[in-house]
């Protein structure tokens, strides 16, 4: 009998943000194919909570242990062997996680699957930094974009004119280019920017600046991946609340 594949979001890194349903299927799985971006604490949880075979497929930006096509083929192969497979992905599978591509492959091969959403870092990172992605007095909308090659298809002129929070995932390496595009198309250089590094983990760090200076600040502070970039007036909320915010387990100094 053909098995089943669960496409599961592991959340942003803090294991306590893993959903109950995700934990249940992790405990029941025969094989777990996990992305490196799930984080060290989630990997430790897998070792404690699951008896499944654990396969690290990589998938950190720029570092892939397996090609996406090989991951797809492995999921199909394992399911056809009758195994219960968990494909564990950082954040949410459908927010720049290629989960959509994977379910298409499963359907094409007649494999039953179930999607278990996860908390995306696009929302969790700002939340842990005291930044709401929408706020009635600031930005009434939010836009998620990728900092990878797909950004070339964006209408940067329209994006710069939107009265919306802009969240960029996987955008550290392209920060300079993205900022230049927004400024070129008329975005106010005084627009606040936050970069949240290692969100929801003990190593979370929040760096604040504006479109005019964030590139230099990021270079000075040697910002590394994974990090979420937040652009918009909602970033100003952090100043009002940060002294009372207790989300992070350890807080590194904010750089301005």
Automatic annotation (TrEMBL):
Domain of life of the organism encoding this protein:
Archaea
Q: Which residues form the Tetrapyrrole methylase domain?
A: 4-214
CDD domains membership: SUMT
Q: Which UniProt keywords apply?
A: Methyltransferase, Porphyrin biosynthesis, S-adenosyl-L-methionine, Transferase
MF term (GO), any: uroporphyrin-III C-methyltransferase activity
Its EC number(s): 2.1.1.107
Tell me the protein family, please: Belongs to the precorrin methyltransferase family.
Q: What is this protein called?
A: uroporphyrinogen-III C-methyltransferase
Protein species of origin: Geoglobus ahangari
């Amino acid at each position: 009998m053909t098995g089943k594949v669960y496409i599961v979001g592991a959340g942003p890194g803090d294991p306590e943000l893993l959903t109950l349903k995700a934990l249940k299927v992790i405990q029941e799985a025969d094989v777990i194919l996990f992305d490196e971006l799930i984080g060290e604490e989630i990997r430790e949880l897998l070792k404690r909570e699951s008896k499944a075979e654990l396969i690290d497929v990589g998938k950190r930006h720029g570092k892939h242990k397996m090609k996406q096509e090989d991951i797809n083929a492995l999921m199909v192969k394992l399911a056809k062997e009758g195994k219960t497979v968990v494909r564990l992905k950082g954040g949410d599978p459908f927010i720049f996680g290629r989960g959509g591509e994977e379910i298409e492959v499963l359907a094409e091969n007649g494999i039953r699957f179930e999607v278990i959403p996860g908390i995306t870092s696009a929302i969790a990172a700002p939340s842990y930094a005291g930044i709401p992605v929408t706020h009635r007095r600031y930005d009434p909308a939010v836009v998620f974009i990728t900092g990878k090659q797909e950004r070339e298809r964006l209408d940067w002129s329209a994006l710069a004119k939107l009265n919306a929070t802009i969240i960029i995932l996987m955008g550290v390496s392209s920060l300079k280019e993205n900022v230049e595009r927004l400024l070129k198309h008329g975005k106010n250089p005084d627009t606040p920017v936050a970069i949240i590094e290692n969100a929801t983990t003990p190593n979370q760090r929040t760096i604040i600046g504006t479109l005019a200076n964030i590139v230099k600040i990021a270079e000075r502070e040697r910002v590394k991946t994974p990090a979420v970039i937040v652009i918009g007036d909602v970033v100003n909320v952090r100043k009002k609340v940060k002294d009372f915010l207790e989300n992070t387990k350890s807080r590194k100094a904010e750089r301005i």
